[in-house]
Design goal:
Keywords: Membrane, Transmembrane, Transmembrane helix. By secondary structure, the chain is an all-alpha fold. It contains three helices and no strands. The protein has one domain. It is elongated, with a radius of gyration of 16 Å. The two termini are 27 Å apart.
């Protein structure tokens, strides 16, 4: 997991050096979607492991709560990182 985070950090630092705002935002959206897939599977495995005896409907409800929270965290991290780099 740490290698994946280092990989995304290096890509993010290279992307933030791009001067063209449209290309930079497009690449950031793609990175965000890729990272969301990793978080999606990690949360699915985590919720499945913790609540292995709970029905699948409750797992989906918990998962539906976690996804918007992760989106807000991503926005905070990306804004903070771009301000820190500038």
């Amino acid at each position: 997991m740490e290698f994946i985070l280092i990989f995304f950090e290096e890509i993010l630092s290279a992307v933030l050096k791009i001067n063209n705002r449209i290309i930079k935002n497009f690449i950031l959206i793609i990175l965000l979607l890729i990272m969301s897939v990793f978080v999606f599977f990690m949360l699915y495995i985590l919720i499945g492991a913790i609540f292995s005896t709970v029905s699948w409907i409750i797992k989906i409800i918990l998962f539906a709560i976690f996804i918007p929270c992760m989106y807000v965290i991503y926005i905070i991290i990306l804004n903070g990182y771009s301000e820190w780099k500038n």
